[in-house]
Design a protein that fits this description.
Elements: E1 6-15, H1 19-30, E2 35-38, H2 53-60, E3 69-70, H3 99-109, H4 117-130, E4 134-135, H5 142-154, E5 160-161, E6 163-164, H6 191-197, E7 201-203, E8 206-214, E9 217-226, E10 234-248, H7 251-261, E11 273-274, E12 277-283, E13 298-302, E14 307-311, H8 316-321, H9 328-334, E15 340-347, E16 354-357, E17 366-369, H10 374-393, E18 398-400, H11 416-420, E19 436-437, E20 463-465, H12 480-495
Parallel strand pairs: 1-2, 1-10, 2-7, 3-17, 10-20
Antiparallel strand pairs: 4-6, 5-13, 8-9, 9-10, 11-19, 12-15, 12-18, 13-14, 14-15, 16-17
Helix pairs in contact: 1-6, 1-12, 4-12, 5-10
């Protein structure tokens, strides 16, 4: 073995086991190719994942959810760090690639084969069948979502129940902690086991440091084996050879970090995009029961207004932190914890940012710079205004907009005008983002992109990128299904 604790070899090595990496492994292993999967996080059995929020975030979230953008108004970037990636901590929301986005990719970026309408439709059909995708049923919708549906109906907004990869959902509202019955078909319980059954091999707790080159091609990866729960303590080194190709699917943040540490430059780490969002909480006379139902069951897509509204049930620890007041006032609200609803707005922001690697051993491995534009903030203000109106339309007694500089409690509909007229800045909000894009964009022109239509790097043959970092634009909708569809197409071509 020499200097390496683990040495392995396959036709393809796949770095990352989220929506992109797991889909690539599923397609390639089914085609008879030998695949070695790597993930820097642990492989956690669902029954072993903590139900309490603190333990869940410690074991499954990157940097305990504290990775933030840099700048005057930083905000968290939420990512999973375990086998299954962010699919193992999200709500399983499914949206096909919107048609207007698909056309833009074809017409502006030359991705006619990758974003072929019929080809993508076939891929989506297969994925939806294999992952049991269906609309959330009335039986598990839950009151948080049902109240949002009522508000959308009263205000004549185009709401709908959410489609998810959880046909057998029991409504435990524990998507973040890992579905206790494995009804949600996240990658750790679906495509990863399927790939392993087809002959793929998995090494977890394996952090890739760089892509190896020989003769001007990518031929493998090497990195550090990390002790579980040790905050990076090494248990040895590994080296994985790839006879046909290296596939990097480590997310729109970690992928450009790895590519830059492997010597790639140009557009690597440029044009980072996101869907930052914020939430509004409402207090109701009757119990809402946020602890039962789909974590996210109802949505109001407003694509012409560059935003999407969603119901979002939260664990009581998180919800309690969102309640206004102090002392007896806060305790009184806490005593009615079952009477709150929470809805959020995500904005398809026009801002572009950058991703750069940091020094090893300095905490987070990525420095992400991203600042919303003035137009982005106006759209976010419009979304928050709409949510406040929806809360009162559904019967809320009081609404908490969560905006610094405004009253923490709105008592009636007339006070929503305070939100509508506010000069909203990013520093006034607790923004968060979990939909991340760009940073290794696909395109025909090597001067304006990192990978081509086959998702192979322009600058390094044998290196492929298969995650949302290749998206030349953001989507305005949840990206997991689009990642899987695009990667399914590219992996089919690669397998052939």
């Amino acid at each position: 073995m020499g200097a390496y604790t683990i040495e392995d070899e396959g036709d393809f090595v796949v770095v990352g086991t989220g929506a992109g990496g797991a889909t690539a492994a599923r397609v390639l292993s089914a085609a008879g190719r030998s695949v070695v999967l790597l993930d820097e996080g642990p492989r956690l059995k669902t029954e072993d994942r903590p139900r309490a929020l603190l333990g869940a975030m410690t074991s499954a979230f990157r940097d305990f959810g504290t990775t933030t953008t840099r700048g005057t108004s930083p905000f968290p970037l939420l990512q999973g760090r375990l086998v299954g990636g962010s699919t193992a901590i999200n709500s399983g929301i499914i949206w096909r690639l919107p048609e207007d986005v698909r056309r833009e990719w074809v017409e502006r970026y030359g991705l006619s084969e990758l974003a072929d309408e019929a080809g993508l439709a076939r891929a989506f059909d297969t994925i939806e069948r294999e992952l049991e995708i269906t609309e959330t049923s009335d039986e598990v919708l839950g009151n948080n979502a049902a109240l949002m549906a009522l508000a959308a109906e009263k205000l004549k907004l185009p709401g709908k129940v959410i489609s998810r990869n959880a046909a057998r959902c029991k409504g435990t509202a524990q998507c973040l902690q890992g579905c206790p019955g494995e009804a949600r078909q996240s990658m750790d319980v679906s495509y990863i086991p399927r790939s392993l059954a087809a002959g793929a091999r998995l090494h977890d707790q394996a952090r890739v440091d760089r892509v190896l080159r020989e003769g001007g091609r990518a031929v493998g990866v090497e990195g550090e084996l990390v002790e579980r729960g040790s905050e990076g303590r090494s248990r040895g080194r590994f080296k994985i050879r790839a006879k046909r190709g290296v596939i990097v699917a480590a997310s729109a943040v970690q992928t450009p970090v790895l590519l830059r540490r492997s010597g790639l430059r140009g557009m690597v780490g440029e044009r980072f995009q996101a869907h930052p969002g914020a939430a509004v909480v409402g207090r109701f006379k009757d119990p809402v029961g946020m602890g039962f139902g789909a974590t996210q069951g109802y949505e109001v897509p407003l694509r012409d207004r560059f935003m999407k509204l969603e119901s979002l049930s939260m664990p009581p620890e998180m919800l309690g932190a969102r309640l206004p007041g102090a002392g007896p006032a806060w305790q009184e609200r806490l005593g009615q914890l079952d009477h709150f609803a929470q809805w959020c707005v995500l904005v398809r922001m026009e801002a572009h940012g950058t991703v750069r690697p940091t020094l090893f051993g300095t905490g987070s491995d990525a420095a992400v710079s991203f600042t919303p534009t003035a137009l982005d903030m106006r759209r976010l203000r419009e979304g928050l205004t709409t949510l406040c109106r929806m809360m009162f339309a559904a019967g809320a007694l009081e609404v908490y907009p969560g905006i610094a500089g405004l009253p923490p409690v709105l008592k009636d509909l007339s006070e929503v005008a305070l939100v509508e007229g506010y000069d909203l800045k990013a520093r006034h909000l607790n923004l968060m983002a979990s939909h991340l894009f760009g940073s290794a964009c696909a395109g025909k022109d090597p001067a304006r992109s990192v990978v081509g239509e086959d998702l192979q790097a322009h600058a390094l043959p044998g290196l492929y990128v298969m995650d949302s970092s290749v998206f030349p634009t953001n989507l305005g909708v949840n990206p997991q299904h689009s990642i899987m569809g695009v990667v399914y197409r590219a992996a089919e071509r690669l397998a052939a």
